[in-house]
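User: Please predict the structure of the protein below. I'd like the answer in structure-token form so I can feed it into my own downstream comparison script.

Assistant: Understood. Taking the following sequence of 219 residues as input:
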Amino acid sequence: MLLSLLALVLTAQETPPPAPEPEFGRPEWVARPTPADLNDAYPVSAYETGKGGTVTMICRATAMGDLDRCQVIKDTDPEAGFAGPSLKLTRLYKMKATGPDGAPVTGRLVRIPVVWTAPGKFAADGLPYDLISRDQLKWTGRVRPTRAIGGTPTLRLVCRITVTGKLTPCAEPGARKPYDGPAKWTARKFTAAPLDVDGKPVKGKLVVLEFPDVKSKLP
């Protein structure tokens, strides 16, 4: 009996651990997310706090060069909310179906780092990207739309607070030109008090507004 147990122990010790799956280090990309794609996917909370970060994922390549079964393996700031948007962006990646070594990429593991860089300037006016949370503002005029803004799903605007408390210019995150449309018209109904809840001036600050995800248009 003792000899049998000893044999089992020796066998278990001699069995080597399974080797990790090799990663495909340098895929040849034919499509990747653009800076505009990252701007559109940037989490609102990270915009409001000016946060940036890096998310690293491991994905498996398909026969067509797409990415499948992606998982986040490293996140420099988990509270900033970059993990979810990074995973959604994986659908925009596409590599050549054959690697530099001439072998198919099917089933290979690919490491994908996504760098989220907080904007330094507001593209609509070229001034510093100095954000304030909506909850930090005291509003003297505000609307809470319950209908869609022109039929656009969950439109997000970034607006500059003027000396009078009005919001202008407004632009979608990453957009180079001020936004002109129903949402901008609605933003005109917002007016911020000169001081925030802590008594600090709000002139020149940026605020992020979000509008509802429904299909009907403004009355």
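That's the full token string. The chain has two domains: 22-116, 134-210.
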